[in-house]
Amino acid sequence: MHTCPTRVISLENTLHGMVTPLAEIQRISAFAREHGIKLHLDGSRLWEVAAAGEGSLADFSACFDTVTLCFSKGLGAPIGSILLGSKQTMRTARWIRKAIGGGVRQAGVMTAAARVAVDETFGTGPSGEGGLLKNTHVLAKQVEKMWTDLGGKVVKPVQTNMCWLDNEAAGVSSDAFDELGKAEGLKMWAPRLVFHYQIYQNRDEVVPRLERVFRRAMELGVSGTDSGKAREEFRYGSH
Questions:
Q1: Which candidate, 47, 63, 206, places its Cα nearest to that of 128?
Q2: What is the CATH number of the domain that holds 212?
Q3: CB contact burial 208-221 (16+ within 10 A = b; e otherwise)
Q4: CA–CA distances in Å: residue 176 to residues 30, 136, 149, 238
Q5: Cα separation of 129 and 167, whole Å?
Q6: Cα separation of 57 and 50, whole Å?
């Protein structure tokens, strides 16, 4: 009587780079449909789930009433997302979009970029066959091992293209870590490292730089010199 009934369950996959398994999604979907609850998926990075071999785009999408996917996150398009659903849902969505002032004219340029991103970066099959995303997962695992071999810890397990470093456990603040990366010409946002296909293509140049950042971060953590002065010495000194 005094509570708001649940009308929609919204899930996200991946979440922090980790995959929610298809079997768990199917279990939640069955529960939602049994109780007349709509189910939405924030699938901005669902491409990564499929490329990881956890199930096809169709397998996951079949569990939901609506799904969103992003063409820029990991795929390389400059802009654009897509909403999937039934014909009636799409008619309602377009009406709402127009009612609040949304819409794009001459959308072909955006569509062309999205198509290239899907076909070349993700791949032509429903599980990313022939695409480039799987390579970024391999690189993320390599970076995870490089960090842990130096004694570092990770906050979350690497399952797709993200590596979450526990830089605080190493005694280095996120700001200091980012400064160390900047000194090596790497744009970072500790503790999350996100790898895309262009980084993989330049891995022979990037990985050695990142390893130097890791080693210097460990040195700062062990010595307890995580300070602005230490960061400036590293930035302008020889390394």
A1: 47
A2: 3.90.1150.10
A3: eebbbbbebbbebb
A4: 47, 25, 21, 17
A5: 35
A6: 6
* Domain limit, last residue, from 122, 151, 170: 122
Residue 103: Cβ-neighbour burial (10 angstroms; 0-12, 13-18, 19+):
exposed
Indicate the pTM of the whole model: 0.86
> Which among 75, 74, 63 is positioned nearest to 17, based on CA atoms?
74
CATH number for the domain that contains residue 47: 3.40.640.10
> Among the three residues 99, 122, 145, which one is the final residue of a domain in this structure?
122
Chain segment 111-123, per-residue pLDDT in tens: 999 999 999 999 9
**Are 192 and 142 part of one and the same domain?**
yes
Domain count, the chain: 2
Same domain for 138 and 76: no
In this structure, the answer to whether residues 46 and 151 fall within a common structural domain is no
Q: In this structure, what token pair is assigned to residue 220?
A: 């700062």
**For 142-193, what is each residue's pLDDT tens digit?**
999 999 999 999 999 999 999 999 999 999 999 999 999 999 999 989 899 9
Give the H/E segment covering residue 193: strand 192-194
